[in-house]
Design a protein that fits this description.
With about 90 residues, this protein is mostly helical. The chain has a single domain (about 1-85), classed as Rossmann fold (3-Layer(aba) Sandwich), CATH 3.40.50. The protein is about 65% helix and about 10% strand. The protein is built from five helices and three strands. The chain has a three-stranded parallel sheet. The longest helix is centred in the last third of the chain and has 15 residues, at about 70-85. The chain is globular, with a radius of gyration of 15 Å. About 10% of the residues are buried.
Length: about 90
């Protein structure tokens, strides 16, 4: 399962010829994409019109949604710190 970052979704919605859209389309077709709250909030915040917000919301509601707990955020911070060691 993949949780696509907001920056990938922006290209998905705004750049139909982008490699990000192509990759995300493949993952969506394989039921391998999930959504988390922070990404949902960031995408909706960037909508310019109510119709754009409706289209984005409708697209995203079809995806599995994961609640992210405090312990998950702590683990993400720990993993990020490990990845930056030695960089």
């Amino acid at each position: 399962m993949v949780i696509a970052d907001t920056s990938v979704w922006i290209k998905f919605f705004n750049r139909p010829d982008s490699p990000q859209k192509e990759a995300l389309d493949l993952l969506i077709d394989a039921d391998e994409v999930a959504l988390v709250g922070v990404v949902l909030a960031e995408l909706l915040q960037g909508c310019r019109t109510p119709s754009e917000r409706d289209a984005v919301s409708e697209s995203l509601l079809a995806l599995p949604y994961f609640e992210v707990t405090q312990s998950t955020w702590m683990k993400a911070g720990d993993l990020s710190e490990l990845c930056s060691d030695g960089a």
